[in-house]
């Protein structure tokens, strides 16, 4: 019985802060990650890209234009150039009523995020598609430097990707790491039993877009021994429904809302 293997009372559903508390502070900045922890998130989600000189930078887009005052591709800039960019002013422009100015916000390196939240931090690191093939190894090396591969708490770090090749590469080297296969919005709901079983050979779970997630998808994933995470859920009503459906984790821009909803249960 899948429920016996994966009991998911609301209290155990993980509250994952998507790009930090990105509904309240500029996404993927140290301010957003620290705020997420203060708001009661169990884990912070972050995306990595590579700079031209090979530094892992914590930024979602492959380009700079949406969330910084820079232009063009992340990978066409060196770390030093990227660190000079303002990664907070756009948020104030988008939310003029917001009382805090984030003009000193910078793009953090992965190293800086891990240093900031420390060895007690819990992370969900997404390796984007189309990055240089050494990216997964670099992420592992960075985790190792922060003693996060040698951790006694096996679930302290989750690595997720839409790219199965990246996850398989990591699984071969570190089968103990918890891996989540992200499923694109357009594929959600179309996974066959065989597809889920193939994912279960290298990953621990799947991440689905919440708008495409049905109760039956959760049951089917659980039957194959996979956990199931919903991304990116910001409405309390939808959070309540997913808790009711026994989802295992919810990724949200508003970890404070999810915390409130979990307390109601
Ligand atoms: O947790 C899944 C989610 O982060 C994937 O989408 O585009 O926000 O990285 P995206
Ligand atoms: Ca992500």
TrEMBL record:
- What protein does this entry describe? Glycerophosphoryl diester phosphodiesterase
User: GP-PDE domain spans which residues?
Assistant: 13-262
Q: What species is given as this protein's source?
A: Desmospora activa DSM 45169
For molecular function, the Gene Ontology terms on record are: phosphoric diester hydrolase activity
- Which lineage? Bacteria, Bacillati, Bacillota, Bacilli, Bacillales
Pfam families in the cross-refs: GDPD
Per the record, the GO terms for biological process are: lipid metabolic process
């Amino acid at each position: 019985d899948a429920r016996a293997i994966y009991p998911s009372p609301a209290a155990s559903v993980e509250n994952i802060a998507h790009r930090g508390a990105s509904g309240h502070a500029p996404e993927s900045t140290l301010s957003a990650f620290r705020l997420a922890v203060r708001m009661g998130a169990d884990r912070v989600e972050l995306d990595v890209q590579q700079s031209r000189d090979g530094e892992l930078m914590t930024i979602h887009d492959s380009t700079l234009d949406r969330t910084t005052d820079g232009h063009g591709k992340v990978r066409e800039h060196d770390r030093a150039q990227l660190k000079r960019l303002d990664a907070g002013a756009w948020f104030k422009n988008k939310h003029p009523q917001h009382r805090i100015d984030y003009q000193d916000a910078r793009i953090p390196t992965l190293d800086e995020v891990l240093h900031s939240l420390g060895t007690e931090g819990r992370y969900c690191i997404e390796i984007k598609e189309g990055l240089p093939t050494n990216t997964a190894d670099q992420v592992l090396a960075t985790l190792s430097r922060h003693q996060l591969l040698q951790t006694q708490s096996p679930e302290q770090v989750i690595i997720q990707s839409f790219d199965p090749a990246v996850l398989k590469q990591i699984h071969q080297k570190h089968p103990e790491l918890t891996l989540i296969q992200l499923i694109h919005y357009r594929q959600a709901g179309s996974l066959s039993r065989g597809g889920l079983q193939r994912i279960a050979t290298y990953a621990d779970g799947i991440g689905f877009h919440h708008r495409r997630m049905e109760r039956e998808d959760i049951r089917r994933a659980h039957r194959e021994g996979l956990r199931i995470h919903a991304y990116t859920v910001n409405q309390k009503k939808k959070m309540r429904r997913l808790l009711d459906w026994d989802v295992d984790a919810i990724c949200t821009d508003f970890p404070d809302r999810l915390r409130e909803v979990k307390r109601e249960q």
